[in-house]
User: Fold these one by one.
Assistant:
Number 1:
Amino acid sequence: MVKYADLRKAQLLLYGQHYLALGTASLQMPGYPYVSLAGYIMGAEGCPLILISELAEHTHNLKGDARCSLLVTAEGSPGLEHARLSLIAEAIPLTVEETGKEASRYYRCFPQMQDFHVRLDFRFFRLLPLQGRFIAGFGRAYWLDWLPPSVLLPTEMEATLISRMPEHPSLSIVSIDSLGLNWRQGERLHRYVFEVEMAGIEDVECQALAAWSVIFKDLP
């Protein structure tokens, strides 16, 4: 049985990282998986979102078979004793309307790719988790039905919360969720984790403001 502490750890891992290993069914070599890295954010529905070129091998593969898998590990933690999360998923292209809502969230995390879906032939996919395998540490491995955080912020509401945060010349908030917030200083992304998961949107706003104040205070 999956312990709540390990489920929360799996959620924190997925929400705290921005790169995953994506595996798709190869069209070039039928019957074999094709794996490479992709940048991702967590979308408003609690699923990873990726942006990939129409020319990418993954795009060709996903058009033939939407089934895929992904692996996320903690940054700088390659050892087998560290936590890692594998998700079996289905890749769903975003509609034009969904893209309009989610694009700004993605580009806050990856500004170097700004408007690739407009200027270049790139497409957003939602990776809908069906089941996961979480390795919390040695001797602690579980199959789990993926459960997103209990409070999911609509994209417009998240943007409103971010706009209410005090501005700083060298810092910017990338995303806010009920587990914590991601922020940028220069080229580097950071994660601030709330002590407990927030139970409502008002709680998220209050905790995010408090966290942002702590981040300001800790700066040299």
Number 2:
Amino acid sequence: MKSKYTYKIPFYLCNQNLHLRADGLLKLLVDASSRNTAEVEGDIEGYHWILYRWYINIYDKILSEDEIEIETYSRKIDRFFAYRNFYIYKSGVKILEADCKWLLVNDEGKIVRIFPELIEKYGQSEGFAMPKSEVKPLENYSKVQNIHIRKSDIDVNGHVNNSNYLQYIEDVINLENKSIKNLDLIYKKELKYVDQPKIHYSQNNNIFECAISTDNIHTIAKIELE
């Protein structure tokens, strides 16, 4: 089932130049996904979805007060993984396409195989597909910085909200009036309030790579700037 939702960009999701921040973008995409999920799943209980990977191409800036349309639908379901597409349109022109990868977990937090009832409800449609190969951490990063997790970063599941990882990244990335062209981000392990993570990062011209870690790697990202 394909759904399309209209949003007017609020200033509080934007940076000082009134450009939509990356974490603000993810908030909007997840909101559209949640609305579509509620429409499709109906009264199915005892399970919820967790994000594993984002792959996003951005073709134009989104500014405060812009009115956009977000289209989203299920692209593919493969045993334990569900792939969801997003397209953003501004004035009828496609300015973003994204593919994301989800896992289904039960109320005990165990990853489960996606069951036939859900597959039938969602259906599957062709669309924009992320690369099969996943971004890997570098052997060495040039810089490292501590991350302070705030109580406001924690969501209803008791973990750092997915969009807040982008806030941590945006705190160290050097945009210098550049904008994000491509984002490839993987969530390996949840961060909790008691964790004391670090962000290890390197930036070489228009390519920024990082890993957020404690004793384990929690998130890996590669960002291409333009």
Number 3:
Amino acid sequence: MSADMSEVQMDWLDLTAFCEVAKHASFTKAAERMHLTQPVLSTRIRRLERMLGVELLHRSTRRVTLSQPGHRLLRHVQGLRQSWHHAVADVTRGDIRFTVATTIPELCSVAAATNHHFPHLRVEYELRIPGTALPAVGAGGFDAVQGADPLFHNVVPPAQVEIGTIVHEPVWVMLSEQHPLAAHSRIRLHALSDEAWIEAPESIDELMAICIEAGFVPDIRYRSRTLPVVDLIQACNAVSLIQARVPAPAGCVTRPLDIDVRRHIFYAWHSGTPQSIVRFQHDFLRTGYRRLAFRNPAYRQFIESEPQRFAELHNTV
């Protein structure tokens, strides 16, 4: 049964997923390319087929091939992509200064990627301490930022600033691999009530709030970004909160907590920023975050064991 065109609402990421499967003739390879779990990728393809009312792919245990409607759709999508690139080049023609700030060094490549995609832009970036990036957009110092809300608080954007979610990133705990609790797959926060903690100054209020919610006041014995954090943790002298995407250093492990603590990572832009640039950078940062997340074997195992949790955290469905 064909789709009612008046009700079709196309999702470009669904089309991208379809193109990747068609290109590699494999759901597994396409999922790796898009930094998605295979169930999430399959959901996108099924949603596209359901919306169009046709079967786009022939699936077997050994290979994936395009159906006749799939071949036709692929030709149209390839044409759309080419037209889109021509349109972007046309509307962004001119020497435009675009500044972007990020709180995560690995994502600074968003500037180079934007320069490559929009060759007529002059893109600059700056690494910012969390909490200082968003006000810079409202004050006119930056066109866009990647930032993070404090735990338990949603940042209210300044006037003329809009916000889009990149990820709701879980907060875990890092401890020595020799620690008695390291053998647990998930750790009760209250079980760490007698531990010494080490935190960066900007994270202390968040740690206090999390622990008080769990029924104890943490012993924050070390407050510094410059102390040998890993050495202290390896020697079982301290534990620390850590973003789930960060791989554990040698001699340490990271574990999820029994309470669901998430940090809202966002992309914010001035309302006057061209939407083509906003969409490109937002998608680039979301993909970059998924790529970073997969670097941590513990987090990868966590999200692959709970595909729906991955989709919820990373806004992929």
